[in-house]
Amino acid sequence: MSWKDILKAHCGTEKMGKPCNCEECVNKKLTPKQSKHLDGNNDGKISREDFDLLNKKEKNLMKDIKKKILSTNTKKGGALAMKDLKHIASKKDLDKAIAELIEEGVLHHHKHGDLYTHEPKKGSKRRGPFTA
């Protein structure tokens, strides 16, 4: 048995630039912080119900962000820039919510980058997800 075979049989292959596939590494337990975050119903077990709860929370968060974007749009008179939305949520969540609103046809892009809720005039082009 060569030294490479011995290393492959147990942890240490990651030092050779390859992921380790030993049982010890594959069946690692979650850290307490990870377990606490994933255990949505606090029953001490991570189950399908926990992931359903996490998905529900994320959907509710997206609904709230979308409502805030649209209410801010109304307050600003129908046109928004990214600077007007930074206080609502993180950039990642904002980009996701804006992309969903554009896909639903609720928001549109102006050729100069602003977001607006009314239908684009003929000749103006709709662009992809908003990026600042």
Give the strand line-up of the largest sheet: 1-3-2
**Termini Cα gap:** 57 Å
Radius of gyration: 24 Å
Roughly what is the average pLDDT, rounded to an integer?
Answer: 76
Shape: elongated
Helix content: 40-55%
The helix-strand sequence is HHHHEHHEE
Summarize the structure.
By secondary structure, the protein is mainly alpha-helical.
Structure description:
The protein is mostly helical and about 130 residues long. It is built from 6 helices and 3 strands. The chain has helices at about 5-10, 25, 30-40, 50-75, 80-85, 90-105, and strands at about 80, 110, 115. It has a 3-stranded antiparallel beta sheet. Helix 4 crosses helix 6. The longest helix is centred in the middle third of the chain and has 28 residues, at about 50-75. The relative contact order is 0.09.
List the main descriptive attributes of the protein structure presented here:
single chain; 132 residues; mainly alpha; three-stranded antiparallel β-sheet; 6 helices
Secondary structure topology:
Blueprint: H1 3-9, H2 23-26, H3 32-38, H4 48-75, E1 79-80, H5 82-85, H6 91-104, E2 108-109, E3 115-116
Antiparallel strand pairs: 1-3, 2-3
Helix pairs in contact: 4-6
